[in-house]
């Protein structure tokens, strides 16, 4: 008791102070609970209210009454009752029973995979910390488009961990989004300046999907169907482009840029050539400007996949004459995160290409008073307006990661970015010179941060890598790849040289680095001379105080969950609990390269396995893929699975996709991307699926019917009573049911799509499972399938999926998508348990 009293601070102005601590007093079979009250008399002396205790055998214990589900729910009990009375229902059960058709309600008890009871925040963090400790990451020099970087603490604290930045909705309403729109415009300016091209978008999902979007753009613009791809592209980029090409009937052909006869491969039906700059072996191609000239002479577009940091030293894509540039902004302040989330980008050379560009574009306009204002522009390209004629199905992109990258550039400014790039290149040049001086060949002379080295005694080399806890890249031809980055230290260079039996102490390396002349790029034709990031915003906020004030100024212009609920969709109508977001910054989760051996990522494997089991139990599906890094990307992966299934059965003629006219725009846009023919299904007078029209179209297209895409509950928020009949009708005519899981938060713990007839769904973890939406991304859209579709889930060319490496069906650069935000969903489900989910998720009805 003394401890409780001593820790309680009493204010003179308060006559009564009630401690939140509850005590249980056991007196034989009777149990009573009461708050302990402390009263002040006029002299401010304490008077303690006594309990009438008669039994000397008393057990007093402090109860931890902190229940996460209670904190997670929006309405209190009184508010809930007021809403129910207004709607005419006596309780939540009556409301849900009235809305959810009896025929689809959950019959079996949940809890076989997910624990029945949730845990408190402290226990969840302890459990997740133990899982994260299973990760055993080595120092990584793999590269391949993913590089460790130093994330400024001021950006982590004031943006990544700030609900004012993480919780807003997509900026469709510019009046309440001026801060984010200005920041995204900074991102676009950064990309445009560094790539040397006029127009950029406000982010894409990652570098690999940006490559796929670029070749699709080239095909649309040129009306030609052959793409020549550089064999020096990163393998994951090739995989995602190959996946996109197959259903679109694009002739996707390899091209060796180093072939002296490359110009002879140019023909009439070539839409574009796409190349990596620098390439996957670190090589900076010679005479790229001449290659571009030859291509343009044949009316072929040139797409360059750029390393953003290298462009501070190298000639830009625009300087070389390229038409389109794509890549990833990961090196600009975004942790490796075992694959993401990272902001992809695209920039183009002219307005004609910009009008065909995918994704959102922020433009400058004026408000009613004539003041400068920002808004999304050229929206008639996008899925929510153009539907199946949209330039892409992309909806959620990577707004928050894009804003972090923009702030990284603003904080450092152009001079500091050049310095960082020079230090990386200088260290790589020193490493190359030292290897050569010791008789070890380095394959390429022209490089930025990556060296390719012939194999030595591979067995001994691998043993030394294990000794020093180092990961390097192993090329398929047996060569070794080493990529340096912003975090590389002198000790790391010492360890790398040790792998090659070169023993130099750190002091000697430091002295030699100081003696090393201007980096090689600075003395070559590859050196950049055009200016970049000259605007005021990139040259003004280089101290912590300045950048904090700038970020806060932008944050205060926006509406987020810090201010109020945002009733604009399930992307934001949720709590983004602080405890769920803490783990994404833990080094054991944040600093892991996506292509390390899986033995070094056992913690992530545990998280993935748990999530797959838990999601299967909640949805009624048999298998999940966590690769899709947005809802639209999940839709695409799902439609490819359906396509693959029918092709495997020899029924490739099945290409009709029935979609209600009320469906979200991503549905028809996705179906079109997967080369399905969209046939609309009419609505009845209540806005529901017109079953008569659906039946007629099933009969009409019975032999060609592939699937129906259905949002459930519907886009106007209704559980349509005939959903089982709809699913049965589709199956009756040989089709599959794709149920859009965007509104799954209304179904969770009440019914399961896999039980009432759906074959496949994607689920927006940034809706139902509490990943913050970040003002337009990141998101995650894993797909669940029934067992017959499981063989057609996404593969990956580097990390085996289901025991094999596959180029087919790859929809993202990383094997598990934006892996570092999956612990948020793991934390949410663990906190809630089945009982908490049953309590909280149905509250969405009220």
From TrEMBL:
Gene Ontology biological-process entries: glycine decarboxylation via glycine cleavage system
Membrane spanning residue stretches: none
Domain Glycine cleavage system P-protein N-terminal intervals: 70-500, 540-796
Positions carrying N6-(pyridoxal phosphate)lysine: 767
A GO cellular-component term linked to this record: glycine cleavage complex
Reactions the enzyme catalyzes: N(6)-[(R)-lipoyl]-L-lysyl-[glycine-cleavage complex H protein] + glycine + H(+) = N(6)-[(R)-S(8)-aminomethyldihydrolipoyl]-L-lysyl-[glycine-cleavage complex H protein] + CO2
Cellular localization per UniProt: Mitochondrion
Enzyme class per UniProt: oxidoreductase
InterPro entries registered for this protein in UniProt: GcvP (IPR003437), GDC-P_N (IPR049315), GDC_P (IPR020581), PyrdxlP-dep_Trfase (IPR015424), PyrdxlP-dep_Trfase_major (IPR015421), PyrdxlP-dep_Trfase_small (IPR015422)
Highest taxon of source: Eukaryota
PANTHER family: GLYCINE DEHYDROGENASE (DECARBOXYLATING), MITOCHONDRIAL (PTHR11773:SF1), GLYCINE DEHYDROGENASE, DECARBOXYLATING (PTHR11773)
Complex formation: The glycine cleavage system is composed of four proteins: P, T, L and H.
Protein name: Glycine cleavage system P protein
Lineage: Eukaryota, Metazoa, Ecdysozoa, Nematoda, Chromadorea
């Amino acid at each position: 008791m003394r401890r409780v009293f001593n820790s309680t601070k009493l204010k003179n102005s308060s006559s009564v102070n009630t401690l939140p601590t509850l005590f249980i007093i056991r007196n034989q079979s009777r149990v009573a609970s009461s708050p302990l009250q402390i009263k002040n008399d006029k002299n401010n002396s304490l008077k303690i209210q006594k309990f009438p205790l008669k039994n000397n055998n008393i057990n007093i214990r402090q109860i931890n009454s902190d229940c996460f589900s209670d904190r997670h729910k929006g309405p209190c009990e009184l508010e809930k009752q007021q809403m129910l009375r207004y709607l005419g229902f006596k309780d939540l059960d009556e409301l849900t029973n009235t809305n959810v058709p009896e025929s689809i309600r959950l019959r079996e008890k949940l809890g076989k995979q997910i624990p029945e009871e949730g845990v408190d925040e402290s226990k969840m963090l302890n459990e997740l910390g133990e899982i994260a400790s299973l990760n055993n990451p080595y120092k990584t020099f793999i590269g391949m488009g993913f590089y460790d970087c130093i994330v400024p603490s001021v950006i982590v604290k004031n943006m990544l961990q700030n609900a004012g930045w993480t919780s807003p909705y997509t900026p469709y309403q510019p009046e309440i989004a001026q801060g984010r729109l200005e920041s995204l415009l900074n991102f676009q300016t950064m990309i445009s300046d560094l790539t040397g091209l006029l127009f950029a978008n406000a982010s894409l999902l990652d570098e690999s999907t940006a490559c796929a979007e670029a070749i699709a753009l080239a095909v649309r613009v040129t009306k030609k169907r052959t793409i020549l791809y550089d064999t020096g592209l990163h393998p994951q980029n090739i995989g995602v482009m190959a996946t996109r090409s197959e259903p679109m009937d694009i002739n996707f052909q390899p091209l060796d840029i180093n072939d002296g006869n490359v110009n002879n491969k140019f023909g009439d039906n070539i839409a574009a050539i796409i190349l990596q700059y620098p390439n996957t072996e670190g090589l900076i191609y010679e005479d790229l400007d001449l290659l571009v000239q030859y291509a343009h002479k044949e009316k072929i577009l040139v797409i360059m996949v750029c390393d953003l940091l290298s462009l501070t030293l190298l000639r830009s894509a625009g300087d070389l004459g390229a038409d389109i540039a794509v890549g990833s902004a990961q090196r600009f302040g975004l942790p490796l995160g075992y694959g993401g989330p990272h902001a992809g980008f695209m920039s183009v050379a002219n307005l004609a290409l910009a009008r065909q560009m995918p994704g959102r574009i922020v433009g400058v306009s004026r408000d009613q008073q004539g003041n400068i204002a920002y808004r999304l522009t050229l929206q008639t390209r996008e899925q929510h307006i153009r539907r199946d004629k949209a330039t892409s199905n992309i909806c959620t992109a990577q707004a928050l990661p894009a804003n972090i990258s923009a702030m990284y550039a603003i904080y450092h400014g152009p001079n500091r970015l050049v310095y960082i790039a020079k230090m990386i290149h200088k260290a790589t040049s020193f490493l190359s010179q030292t290897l050569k001086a010791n008789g070890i060949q380095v394959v390429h002379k022209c490089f930025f941060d990556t060296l390719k080295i012939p194999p030595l005694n591979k067995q001994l080399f691998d043993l030394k890598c294990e000794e020093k806890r180092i990961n390097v890249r192993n090329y398929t031809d047996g060569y070794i790849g080493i990529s340096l980055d912003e975090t590389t230290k002198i000790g790391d260079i010492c360890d790398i040289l040790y792998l090659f039996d070169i023993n130099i102490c750190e002091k000697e390396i430091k002295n030699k680095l100081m003696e090393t002349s201007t980096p090689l790029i600075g003395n070559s034709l590859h050196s950049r001379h055009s200016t970049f990031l000259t605007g005021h915003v990139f040259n003004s906020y280089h101290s912590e105080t300045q950048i904090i004030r700038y970020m806060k100024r932008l944050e205060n212009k926006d509406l987020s969950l810090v201010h109020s609920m945002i009733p604009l969709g399930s992307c934001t109508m949720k709590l983004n609990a602080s405890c769920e977001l803490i783990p994404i910054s833990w080094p054991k989760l944040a600093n892991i390269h996506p292509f390390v051996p899986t033995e070094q990522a056992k913690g992530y494997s545990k998280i993935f396995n748990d999530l797959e089991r838990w999601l299967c139990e909640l949805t009624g599906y048999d298998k999940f893929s966590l690769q899709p890094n947005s809802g639209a990307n999940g839709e695409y992966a799902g439609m490819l699975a359906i396509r693959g299934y029918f092709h495997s059965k020899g029924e490739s003629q099945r290409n009709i996709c029935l979609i209600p006219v009320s469906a979200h725009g991503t549905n028809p846009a996705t179906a079109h991307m997967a080369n399905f023919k969209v046939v609309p299904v009419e609505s009845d007078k209540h806005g529901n699926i017109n079953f008569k029209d659906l039946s007629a179209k099933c009969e009409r297209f019975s032999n060609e019917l592939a699937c129906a895409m259905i949002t459930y509950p519907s886009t106007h928020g209704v559980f349509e009573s005939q959903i089982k009949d709809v699913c049965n009708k589709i199956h009756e005519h040989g089709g599959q049911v794709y149920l859009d899981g965007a509104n799954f938060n209304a179904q969770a713990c009440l019914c399961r799509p896999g039980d009432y007839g759906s074959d496949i769904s994607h689920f927006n973890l940034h809706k139902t499972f509490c990943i913050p939406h970040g003002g337009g991304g990141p998101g995650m859209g894993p797909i669940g399938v029934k067992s017959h579709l499981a063989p057609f889930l996404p593969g990956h060319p580097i990390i085996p999926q289901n025991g094999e490496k596959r180029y087919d069906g790859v929809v993202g650069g990383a094997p598990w998508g934006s892996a570092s935000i999956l612990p948020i969903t793991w934390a949410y489900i663990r906190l809630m348990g089945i009982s908490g989910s049953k309590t909280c998720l149905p509250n969405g009805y009220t």
